[in-house]
Amino acid sequence: MKHSIRLSAAWLLVIGIAAAVRCDVLLGDDLAGSDLLVSQEPVATGFIETWEGAATARLPEGPWQLAGGVWGAVAQQDVSGAGRKYAVAPGQVSQLRRAVSCAGQDHVVLEGWLHDPGPGTYSMLGLASSEMVEDAAAVRIGAAGQGTYRVQYFEARGSTPTMRDIDTGAAVEPGWHFLRLDLVRDIDLPDSWLATWRIWNAARTAEKRGSVVLQFDVDAVAWATLGSAQASAEGYAWDQIRVGSIHLAGPPPALETPVTFSAVASSQLDGWEVAKLQDGDPNTVHSSHGHGEQSHATEWAALDIGLAATVSSLRITPRAGGLCFPVDYELQYSTDMADWHTVPGQVHHGQPRPEGAVTHLFAVPVHARGLRVHATRLGSDGPDGAGEHYLQLADLEVPRLKLDTQPWIRPAELRHKSVNSTGIFSTVSLERAEAPTPKYLAEHPDYLAHHPFDGVTVAMMIDGDFTRSQGLVTRSQFAFHEIGMSSLPIPWSAVAEAVADLKRVRWGHCTDNFMWYGVSNFTNHSWEDGDRAWWVDPQSADDWQVVVTNAAVAARAAREAGLTGFLVDTEQYTKYPTGDRPEYPWGLGEAAVWKERGRQWIEAVQGEYPDIVLQFFFSWGDEFRVWPHYQNLVPFMNGVLEGIRHPARIVHAFESTFWNGQARETPPGTIRHYPGDREPFAAARHAIRNVWRNEADDPAKYDDFVDVGMAAWVESDPWNLWPGLPTGFLGPTAPLGRSSWPSMPWSNLAATLAYSDRYVWTWSEKTNYPATALALNPFLASIANQTFNTGTEAVRSFHEDFAQDPMTRGWYFDFSFMEIGRRKAPDDGPPQMVMTTDAVAYAWSPTDRAVRVRGHWTRGEFGELEGLVVPQRRRYVRPITPLTRRDDIRMEMDFTIEDFGQDAANPMLLGLFHSRAVADAQALCVRMASDRDIVLCIAGDGVPWNLPLTPAAPLSVGRGYRLVIEYHAATRRISGALVDRSDRSEVCRATATLPATVGPFVLDEAGLAQREEAFAATAADSYRLRLEGFQLHPPRPAAADN
After folding, report:
1. pTM of the full predicted structure?
2. How far, in Å, CA of 374 to CA of 353, rounded?
3. Which CATH topology does 2-249 take?
């Protein structure tokens, strides 16, 4: 529906938007406070509010102002623990406003998620002018106490504005709803604006969309508004608010339907329901009806995946003892849960009672929505086949299907995060020439210039003459993290040289660098005085005074060296020399004393470095419950929390997440094999944010100061191993068996970033980081290139010839961290997975000086499975400064097609896209489906439009072409030309005027994309090409709208 109104300059547009569980997680102080996105002086042109940062956690001190009523609360998220939200209590009136300027914009966005308990809620999001009074705003969208969400606007009639109310048709229902309003200036009528709203239902299965035509003065916008002057009977909440220009907010996200798994069966008993087949608990069991002493009976239980997927196995977990496991059965598959067919080779007779889970591997993968166990002879619950006969199973699972159906980590989830390389010191002696000491970093700029992360952890070296003078003579030098938590006083002069070296370091893109700080006393390991060298009695005030004085020296060193803070290893590696020798330092002393020690320590640290960031490997977690001698860690952390003051931050940089994803799947009985899908990382985030806060003496202060951090174990095999270390042999040989080591030498780094607020640190034991100057791991570089830690990653123009590794210039590509490894052959080669670009469909080739692309993907241990399970974002791109319809655009792409393929639904896509939208939704690109089917595609917020580029003769395989695309904003003229690079002859050209029906577009990535829906493409039908050059010319100044 469409309505037409006219607004005066004094009454400006307002819209409401609301939201639910995050898909694109944007967290961290910089985002929430808008420091990285906009400047507060002058007034911001937009902001993204996630309620995660220190500023907005203390609402009266942050960018929001209270316009009416009382402050709500920055509260924990429900269930998922994904973050925080702005919550308003039942019966409470809360009206907020935040300064924003939309002057000069021609596309303004308001977007957010609203958690609504149901009808009777009053809360809206909008924009208002400087003349806003009380509850009056030009336009607003949200809940207005009725059964559907409303858009309300004020129409100027004389001197009295009149409110108009539009029924969006989107029902108010309990749960999170997404709301978005796009305000777009008409190209031909600059004073006319089209306001389009989108609202998703709570299940995220349907979208309501409508529009209204307005005329108003965008330059008068002064405030974003949130809330209502009327109290709601029940509480509500807002989250993930985006307000401002389309450049900041981006296009609308795609409506996604989450993949859900369920189970059905031929029959069930009360208390033994079929849902127990999907609860992941082997102690809960589904049972069919009983058949007495009759074993020959038909019963079945089926897994419904929710979509058709390529599956190659089924794991059946029996009831304990294998009771009532079927004797005769076959596995069947279905694409619609109605017609069933036997899986080839999966008919089983005379099966004994299994002792554990039974995994059936299919000789030929099947494309199925459902898998079922169809039993014709049942097992019994008594000995030797006696007793009652049932079909009873604990779980049905397709291994790795949960991982395969989840979306890969997306660029938006990595933005403004930071990866730090850390654990290299465990196996690299600080006396080695290649150790990344301050002196080495200062004298070897290539180390950081090619480092695949956003920062490093530095070992602050202590002067060797000083340590030798104190009796530490077994090594030439010690580092601060080895002896700082001891009773040996360390003077500033002992670290002054290291600080001077760090001041000489050219950090480049490594913006988040930390100083290693340990709590163990490694003077004990030097053996000069047995186990009695410089240990600290926590009950001794004199001993502890040395510790806090040393801590102050360390903090000063970190501050003067320009480091972000400390990375504090709170794990215990040494022991006390007294009594039964408990572990040092948490194993001795009283809780009350340790709390005081924590307070003294942080006060000393902040005395030298007030805005320090402190990452703790372990802090308020469960360590004290499961590990001996950790009983005093939480009291110490409570003391740190008591003493800390703003602007310092604590990061619970949970070390144990580096086990998540070190196995492609998690067979029963394995040790330290944890799945790498999203769920364990979401669970870790939930624990840090919502559960472990309850261990703090002051949970409210914990919420204010503690950020979520994580860790990843990453070995860069085969790119950066130490000389002589063979590839694929980084652990024992039991890749999927019972082993205390992982089956892959890396965990899911991308997921740790996605579920952290900002910081992630990495552990490694075999990686030769100096070698990154010679060979860059493309997977690690791609992750780091997406974090945007420097603020200069998005460029206005570039010229890429692919002569050198594009990863060194900011390119990145999409992949699943759990699918980048391959084995050579089932019975040959090393025992471990090895990272390889054969696992992705695009990779830079130094020989070809090009990015080689194929149109299909493979999965599995050896790449034996073709296609993906669900649609995934798949691109090889470079970030650019957002371009819109107001910008002149010129780009050139050089390519050679090696095979056109035979799949029209899976075309080649080269051009510009947006990181938040699917390839077909926001794009200015060429689409090549065959040697004659070549189309210039423009997709915006309206109707996609195609301009055919028809060659006189078919394009040739193996011939180099150049595609030139030009768009002139003032005239909306767009042209495309295809040139034969061998003789510079023009193959074809087309020019047209871009119709207004395309709507506004915004583009922030340049490169190549694969259509998300073409996820099941096969090698036999897919294209192959080489992208050999890409040039994006600087845009000319935007055309004026008037």
Report:
1. 0.90
2. 17
3. Jelly Rolls (2.60.120)
